[in-house]
Specification:
By secondary structure, the protein is α/β, with parallel strands linked by helices. The protein has a single domain, classed as 3-Layer(aba) Sandwich (Rossmann fold). It has 9 helices and 8 strands. The chain has an 8-stranded mixed sheet with strand order 1-2-4-3-5-6-7-8, with helices on both faces. β1 and β2 form a beta hairpin. α1 packs antiparallel against α2. Bound molecules: 2-acetamido-2-deoxy-beta-D-glucopyranose (5 copies). The site of one 2-acetamido-2-deoxy-beta-D-glucopyranose has 2 residues, from loops.
């Protein structure tokens, strides 16, 4: 039965966005091999990089790279806004890319970090965690957690953070695989909170988190293949990331499933905002994540964009992209005032 209020069958996207989305899908299919390895040399041709700008601000934001641990090439790109606010929050940001693609220097992520830094304003640290399949679970989580330890330790932040940056007002943030990573780093931090003297995590910004499970969810089958995300691609990514021999009900991918780590007793788990889009095949899992956080007694809010796709906010030409950044800003202020 047709109804005037029926949801649209496809998102309304400008042709430029459609083109970029198709290109990124073609590219990811070209570089992923059936034997589970990735053609990094080919991928590098598609991964446009942005250089740091430590001297001349771009839209009022400076950026530079800092090495956290040279033995594993762990670095962060720091984005510092020009701001004389008495305190600046710190966003520890994890980029998306299915744990396998992209980096701190990738063009779209550098652009988004700069927008977040300027708009909130906040110091944004984009973490260059190790990638699968060369480095599997839990390397990515270790890298994320070790950045927090680095920030907490001794005098490491001198010259790295401006004097008005406040380590007691840190946020974990990420999109897609980066939001999965942010979740697991938040869990680890909440368990080991007593080891930290300066760093306090007061919020988790979970943008379209990448979760999985053996059993398909309705949105996964109904929307497959979706924009950017398809079952074929996500299955490949989980195989490349999870320990050999484990399935998608592993606690890393299915956080609320049969092997879930209970978080109800983790009092330090931060207040969370989850962003979901109507045309993202992962949306049912992301809603489930929200429900599970709520059932576990956590402070959490859900914000939905019915007409958007996976990774929509990386496309600055979409008005929803700016709207989402404004909502991140409101969330940050709400947590800082709490
Ligand atoms: C996977 O395939 C690529 C290209 O066909 C090949 O170079 C590589 O050695 C293979 N790796 C493994 C582990 O089989
Ligand atoms: C670090 O990166 C350099 C340059 O890309 C590479 O040659 C080196 O093998 C990497 N080191 C480690 C430990 O991965
Ligand atoms: C930090 O720097 C100050 C001044 O240089 C020094 O006295 C102090 O020992 C340093 N702290 C640590 C933990 O390295
Ligand atoms: C994977 C990757 O490209 N990481 C980069 C992050 O940024 C630093 C500094 O520009 C580079 O050295 C890394 O290669
Ligand atoms: C977050 C998430 O994806 N949870 C899923 C874990 O697995 C169960 C059973 O397959 C699903 O119902 C959950 O949605």
């Amino acid at each position: 039965m047709a109804s005037a209020a029926a949801a649209p069958k496809s998102p309304s996207l400008p042709w430029k966005t459609r083109l970029l989305v198709s290109l990124s899908s073609v590219c990811s299919d070209l570089v992923t091999r059936r034997n589970g390895t990735l053609n990094r040399r080919l991928f590098r041709l598609f991964d446009f990089k942005s250089s740091p700008n430590p001297v001349k601000p771009i839209h009022g934001v400076l950026s530079f790279d800092v090495i956290v641990d040279s033995s594993r090439n762990l670095s962060v790109r720091v984005f510092t806004p020009r701001s004389d606010a008495p305190t600046l929050p710190i966003l520890i940001f994890f980029h998306g890319g299915g744990f396998a693609f992209l980096s701190n220097a990738s063009f779209s992520y550098a652009a988004v970090c700069r927008r977040l830094a300027r708009r909130i304003p906040a110091v944004v640290l984009s973490v260059d965690y190790r990638l699968s399949p060369e480095h599997r679970f839990p390397c990515q989580y270790d890298d994320g957690f070790d950045v927090l330890r680095f920030l907490d330790h001794g005098n490491n932040t001198i010259g790295l953070l401006p004097p008005n940056a406040d380590l007691s007002k840190c946020f974990l943030a990420g999109d897609s695989a980066g939001a999965n990573l942010a979740h697991h780093v938040a869990v680890r931090f909440s368990r080991q909170k007593s080891q930290f003297q300066k760093v306090k995590i007061i919020g988790l910004i979970s943008i379209q988190p990448f979760f999985g499970g053996v059993k398909r969810m309705e949105s996964e089958t109904q929307l497959d293949p979706g924009y950017i995300v398809s079952l074929k691609r996500t299955d490949w990514l989980w195989r490349a990331f999870l320990p050999e021999g484990s399935d998608r009900d592993h606690s890393a991918s299915n956080v609320s499933g049969p092997n879930a780590e209970a978080i109800a007793e983790l009092e330090e788990f931060p207040a969370t905002v989850v962003f979901v889009a109507g045309f993202d095949p992962l949306k049912d899992r992301q809603r489930r994540y929200y429900e599970w956080l709520k059932e576990s007694g956590k402070k959490v809010e859900l914000i939905e964009y019915p007409n958007m796709i996976h990774a929509f906010y990386l496309f600055p030409e979409l008005p929803e992209s700016s709207a989402m950044i404004d909502q991140v800003r409101s969330f940050v202020f709400k947590c800082m005032e709490a």
